[in-house]
Amino acid sequence: MKFKKYIIALPFVLALIALIVIAAQSSTSEEKIITGIIETTTVNVASKIPGRKEEFLRGNIHGAFYFPSELSRNIKSGKQSDVIMFIDASNMLISNSLLKDGAKILKTVNAGILLKKIKSIGMTEKQAINLVNPIKVESNILYNPNYSYITYLIPGLTTFILMMIVIMGAVPIINHKITESDFRNELLLTNKKIFPIIIGKSIPHLLFHSANALILVGIIFPIFNIRIKSSLFVLFIYLLYFIVISFSFGLMFSSLIPKRLFATEVALFILTPAFIYSGLTFPLWAMPQIHQSIAKLIPFTYFLSGFIKLYEMGTSLIYLKKEILVLSTFLIASFIITVISIKIRLKIHKENSDE
């Protein structure tokens, strides 16, 4: 049994995919299919390395084509033959890529064989093509034509990290400080108005996180060659708005939970699944209803939907009305809960002090 191993690189995969071709015997038919594997427009051959079948189990290869010994003989005699594809499905991205490219290669070879037989009975090439392929399908891939996983994943992942940084930075701001003398002095300075205190404590943090947003859009995205298709100013304002919303959520946790460590743990517990429930790694419509309901309670789900529309689809804010409306609801609700929580805790502290 002959082994041939090719290292192929797909344009939308971060790493190289190893593919092995196993031919029970070498013939023209097998060589044509192997040539198709090498020359397909979505596969670039980096090198040829001697390989063994056992490398599949070691994780050195992720897919294999097996050509049986009777393949060429069956094709010439007009009989159907099997080409077996072995695909490593432990990585969904790799398996989907190999499955799509493998099916395309074999369909092309099938069409070529049928075309040659039809031409042999006297039809012209044009007549034969029309008979073999009566419907011509042309795909127009929108927004991410190269299926770039970097373009797809990096913006969502980096904004999720930014959200976590913002919320974790806001969680320790209030907590037990409500019962301290400094907070009571601040209330005296603001005539017992909580809103100015919240704004005063928030501004330095928001300025810092705004700088992080600039780094994200101005440095990280260009490093990964992520092209922003909408207005850069609009995208930045939308990102700042989400930073404010995330910060308000952190303040809400901070006001509700007196202990700083416990508040941090609760925030992490609630927010860690946000990336999974965002719909980026798995479509929301395919999730069970209970998981869809959970996803709708997380601001990041709506933010990411609007963010993708801006940076990848190049749309205007008019198409983000739903996302902005829901995010605004989250902002107002979290702010109201924060104010009410602070008032209740101040009242309880005052009653305990009077006793």
Structural class computed from helices and strand pairing: alpha+beta
Q: How many β strands by DSSP?
A: 5
Enumerate the spans where pLDDT stays under 50 for 5 or more consecutive residues.
Answer: 1-17, 41-51
Give the SSE order as H and E letters.
EEHEHEHEHHHHHHHHHH
Radius of gyration equals 29 Å
Coarse morphology: elongated
Strand content: 5-15%
Order of strands in the sheet with most strands: 3-1-2-4-5
Largest sheet: 5 strands, mixed
Distance between the termini: 89 Å
Helix and strand arrangement:
Elements: E1 2-9, E2 17-23, H1 28-39, E3 44-48, H2 55-58, E4 63-67, H3 71-77, E5 84-87, H4 92-120, H5 125-132, H6 149-170, H7 181-189, H8 194-223, H9 232-256, H10 260-271, H11 289-295, H12 299-311, H13 321-354
Parallel strand pairs: 2-4
Antiparallel strand pairs: 1-2, 1-3, 4-5
Helix pairs in contact: 1-4, 4-5, 6-8, 6-9, 6-12, 8-9, 9-10, 9-12, 9-13, 12-13
Structural description of this entry:
This protein is α+β, with helices and mostly antiparallel strands and 355 residues long. The chain is 60% helix and 8% strand. The chain has helices at residues 28-39, 55-58, 71-77, 92-120, 125-132, 149-170, 181-189, 194-223, 232-256, 260-271, 289-295, 299-311, 321-354; strands at 2-9, 17-23, 44-48, 63-67, 84-87. A five-stranded mixed β-sheet has the order 3-1-2-4-5, with helices on one face. α1 crosses α4 (92-120), α6 (149-170) runs parallel beside α9 (232-256) and α9 (232-256) packs parallel to α13 (321-354). The longest helix is centred in the last third of the chain and has 34 residues, at 321-354. It starts with a strand and ends with a helix. Mean pLDDT is 77; it is low at 1-17 and 41-51.
